[in-house]
Amino acid sequence: MDLILWRHAEAEPAQPGLDDLERTLTPKGHKQARRMGQWLDSVLPENCRILVSPATRTVQTVAGLGRKYKIHPDLAPGADASDILKAANWPSSKEAVLVVGHQPTLGQAAALLMTAEDSDWEMKKGAAWWFVQREADDPSSFYLKAVMQPDLVTK
């Protein structure tokens, strides 16, 4: 199974009275989303299942990819790393899964996948981490395929 974790691009800062789910991308964030979306579209399998947090900033981020997606309420801010893995059906999904979500949850999911321990790893805004486990019941078939961030994508 391929699991790609994509953190939403740069968003407006939290403000009193503004629902966290309604925060939008900055102009820089829109550019990050377009760049990463173009890169991901060029490397993702056609049948990749795309799951997105219900937050506006994640929906705006995935728009840069230009593919159909499903909003998944279990991916909202404050989710646990285990919620991410469960939503993606890790490691048993028959298709690749792209999850568009938030920090610290995505960093925690990456740490859990890489070390099997709870830890707070940072995932940069707009970055994507690509994990692969060839056999669902064989942890030794697991590896990190790629880490990409918007400023590394060439125009």
Notes on the structure:
By secondary structure, the chain is α/β, with parallel strands linked by helices. It is 28% helix and 19% strand. It has a 6-stranded mixed β-sheet. α2 (56-63) links the parallel β2 and β3. The chain is globular. The protein starts with a strand and ends in a 7-residue tail after the last strand.
Defining traits:
19% strand, globular, single chain, 155 residues, alpha/beta
Strand and helix map with partners:
Elements: E1 2-7, H1 27-43, E2 49-52, H2 56-63, E3 70-71, H3 81-88, E4 97-101, H4 105-115, E5 128-133, E6 142-148
Parallel strand pairs: 1-4, 2-3, 2-4
Antiparallel strand pairs: 1-5, 5-6
> What structural category characterises the helix and strand content?
alpha/beta
Distance from N terminus to C terminus (CA atoms, Å) equals 29 Å
The helix/strand series, from N terminus to C terminus, equals EHEHEHEHEE
Q: Hey, roughly how much beta strand do the residues contain?
A: 15-25%
Counted by DSSP, the helix tally is: 4
Give unreliable regions as ranges. none
Helix content: 25-40%
Report a brief summary of the structure.
This protein is α/β, with parallel strands linked by helices and 155 residues long. Helices cover 28% and strands 19% of the residues.
